[in-house]
Amino acid sequence: MKPPMDLDQLLTQTPAKDNAALERVLSAARGELALRRPVRRWRTQAVWLMAASAGMGLLAAVVMLAVGAVTGPLLLARAPLLAMLVGTSAVCAWGALSPQGRWMRRLGVGLAVVSAAALVLARGTPHSPPSLPGWVCTVSHLAIGVVPLVVALFALRGAFFQPLRALAAGLSVGSTGALLGELACEQDWRHVLSHHLLAWVVITVVLVVISKSLKPRSYAP
Amino acid sequence: MRSQSDEELMVRFRDGAQDAFEDLFARHAPRVQGFLARMVRNGALAEDLLQATFLSVIRSRGRYEPGTRFTPWLMTIAANAARDALRHQRHVDAYTSHEDTATPAPQAPDDSDPSLRRHLLDALQQLHPDHREAVVLSKVEGWSFEEIGALRGISPGAARLRAHRGYEKLRELLGELELEVAR
Questions:
Q1: Nearest Cβ partner of B120 from A10, A24, A218?
Q2: Are residues B63 and B50 in the same domain?
Q3: pLDDT at residue B100 in the model
Q4: pLDDT at residue number B135
Q5: Cβ atoms within 10 A of the Cβ of A41, count?
Q6: What is the mean pLDDT of residues B134-159?
Q7: Which residues on B lie below 8 Å from A8 (Cβ)?
Q8: Which residue in the set B51, B63, B153 is minimally distant from A158, CB to CB?
Q9: Which of A35, A69, A180, B153 is the most exposed place for a label (fewest CB within 10 A)?
Q10: 112-171 in chain B: CB under 8 A from chain A
């Protein structure tokens, strides 16, 4: 009688080695090595993303101080919220680009939710009616995020797409606009909710969608 | 002289020693080829994925962290490449099934395979890709369910369930084959 099939043994049998295919792949790898592209360390990329977000925020603050759109005391009054946003951006950027930063990504998403809630709850009643339509804030929020968005997309292409990774990167990018909103916008919490947080969500979704649709340069974790 | 560990070679490669890559390739390429042959029943696609895997090692060597075990890191890259290709294939299949309702041509059998192995590889292709990946990683590569869970962001229990379902389906498919042979 024929013995029953041993599935485990069958599964672990080594398939026939294709030496020709191995040679071709090694040749392609040598071609890639011959290009002598620089090694991109993930920590350096994370620092670049943090610098892009915080740098744009800082640039906006300096310009607004220079033209008198904000004052030193106002900047100091908002320093805790601004620091929270910079911190959120940094944690999200680090988590997004870290190879094993699953808990960091979750922490970043949690911090972004807390920061968003703080932006709404900390906003007082405006003393004067708005001089610009609300959509200007939304557009500004999106526009200031373009540079960090490009940096994030470039960095994310070096790793396999993961939704949580892209979400964390998107939240980091979106926090740049939130910094600008805290510096430049005096309107009430409804405006923050409908124009600033909406823009934060939009830029996050844009990053996730583009990142998913781009062909990755690498499948590394 | 003591031969260097995979991890030492990978750190050397990350730091600029290109010869270390050749050693890693010689050690691991056949294993990755075997894994991909089980994941995709298509020689040309498996070769593309093998290439994508090692190009990823080169391009992402800056993402390798000292202390990380090299083999699981490499197999994670191969599994990600296979997953991406299978997802793309499913989209293409869904599109072509709308465009063309004719039955697709059966794949040409590979004469180098013994019959039962060939049937096993065919049966693997009938599993859901998640189940196939869990079966191959747990039964062939010896990964724990914790490792498979970490790879896919699921719990070890969910990884175990995927492997169990895949294994049972495989047993069922190959059992049918045995019955046919017996008749």
A1: A10
A2: yes
A3: 54
A4: 93
A5: 15
A6: 91
A7: 139
A8: B63
A9: A35
A10: 112-113, 116-117, 120-121, 135-136, 139-140, 151, 153, 167, 170-171
- Distance (Å, whole) CA A196 – CA B63: 34
More confident residue, B135 or B108: B135
Q: Which stretches of chain A drop beneath a pLDDT of 70?
A: 1-5, 127
pLDDT tens sequence across B72-98: 999 999 999 999 998 887 777 777 666
**What pLDDT is attached to residue B1?**
55
Number of structural domains found in chain B: 2
Cβ of B55 and A99 within 8 Å? no
Q: What is the CATH classification number for the domain harbouring B52?
A: 1.10.1740.10
Read off the pLDDT of residues A10-47 as tens digits, 9 standing for 90 and up.
788 777 788 999 999 999 999 999 999 999 899 999 99
Q: Are residues B121 and B94 in the same domain?
A: no
**Residue that has been written with the tokens 């320093």 in this structure:** A79
CB–CB contact B16 A39 (8 Å):
yes
Provide the 3-class DSSP secondary structure of residue B121. Answer: helix
User: What pLDDT is recorded for position B134?
Assistant: 94
Q: Let me know whether B8 and B71 are in one domain.
A: yes
Nearest to B59 among A15, A44, A158 (CB): A158
Cβ within 8 Å, pair A42-B62: yes
pLDDT at site B102:
44
Q: Is residue B78 located within the same domain as residue B25? A: yes
d(CA A210, CA A151): 13
Range of the domain at B36: 1-107
Structure tokens at B58: 């080169």
**Residue B51 corresponds to which amino acid?**
Q
Residue A180 amino acid letter = L
Do B80 and B119 lie in one domain? The reply is: no
Quickly count: other Cβ atoms within 10 Å of residue A221's Cβ.
23
The number of beta carbons lying within 10 Å of the beta carbon of residue A198 is 15
Q: Which of A99, A219, A221 sits opposite B84 (nearest CB)?
A: A219
State the average pLDDT for chain A. 91
Residues 6+ apart with CB under 8 A from A78: A182, A183
Asked if B43's CB is within 8 angstroms of A7's CB, the reply is no
| pLDDT of residue B101 exceeding 60 | no
Over 70: is that where the pLDDT of B105 sits?
no
Phi, psi for residue B75 in degrees, rounded to 5: -70, -30
